[in-house]
Amino acid sequence: MSWYDFDWVDAFSDRAFGGNGCAVVHGGSDLSDEVCMAYVRETSLVECTFTGPSDVADIRVRYFLASREIPFAGHPTIATVAAMRSRGLISGETLTLETGAGIVPIRLDGDEIEMTQVAPQFGAHVPAELVAAAIGLTERAIVCPPQFVSTGLPFCITVLRDHEALRAARLDERYLRKIGELAGYSGADMAEPFLVTLQGATSAGDTFSRLLLAPPSPPEDPFTGSATGAMAAYLWSEGLMDKDSFIAEQGHDMGRPGQARVTRVGPSNAMTGIKVAGRGYVLMRGQVGLPG
Questions:
Q1: Cβ(63)–Cβ(73) under 8 Å?
Q2: pTM across the whole model
Q3: CATH number, position 182
Q4: What is the pLDDT of residue 188?
């Protein structure tokens, strides 16, 4: 067993118990997949990160769910940078992260942490009736054709008509495998639709979103930074967002309000990246003993 420093950070929030929590294990990138997944399950968080040295960037970051490693995630990226900055491990206003989705540039502007997600990739469309069945709504609640979009991690972006439909959504896991198969997955993991409305949770917001999750993850994600980038790319590509930069909100109905500033890089028909920026609040820190 070895002892590792860790920080528990609430990402996309500037206060305790807001946004989405993530535990950052410093120097843990060489731990086995089994140990990393077990640690996520122990925390009951959606995701945790494990950092280490990199030959191609300033630091390497590995991202884990309770069930598997994923190439990239948004709120853990904000959390990782906030944790490193709080420990004095970052100097300057820019750095780069080595992730499974490629090199992610980071810019620090005061308390705000901005990541540049990769150029969006637009995947398969999903029948609206299938997505509607998966979230317990009628097809009329969906206003645009759902589509898989990735800016580092793919999500089935689904635009709903209003807050009433958003709040009424309930996940029916029986349909997730079919949705995942349309994106080339063999199972239901990562097939949950990312739901968005074109009205903020507060007067400051432009969009309000939810991500309902299947086990072994918790039932709902408070704030999903990677899906927010994919969602923004979808809205711009479909002509649903006329601003070049907007405020995305998520988690308010869970009592964990989160907010991100999203900015397009390049024209809407040829985006070269999506910038997603937010803050991170270091809630607690300590050491964890993990088997090597």
A1: yes
A2: 0.95
A3: 3.10.310.10
A4: 53
Instruction: Return the pLDDT at 233.
Output: 98
* The two structure tokens encoding residue 209: 């979103």
Quote the CA–CA distance of 161 and 232 in Å, as a whole number. Answer: 16
Q: Is the peptide bond before 216 cis (omega within 30 degrees of 0)?
A: yes
Is 30 inside any structural domain? yes
Query: In whole angstroms, what is the distance from residue 33 CA to residue 291 CA?
Result: 12
pLDDT at residue 189 tops 90 = no
111 vs 13, 217, 238, 280, CA distance in Å?
10, 29, 32, 8
* Mean pLDDT value across residues 185-191: 64
241 and 142 in a common domain: yes
Q: How far apart are CA 264 and CA 156, in angstroms?
A: 19
Residues 150 and 182 in one domain: yes
User: Does a structural domain hold residue 110?
Assistant: no
Q: How far apart are CA 65 and CA 47, in angstroms?
A: 5
In terms of domains, do 136 and 82 share one?
no
Residue 248: which domain range? 121-278
**Is the pLDDT confidence value at 292 over 70?**
yes
Q: How far apart are CA 181 and CA 175, in angstroms?
A: 10
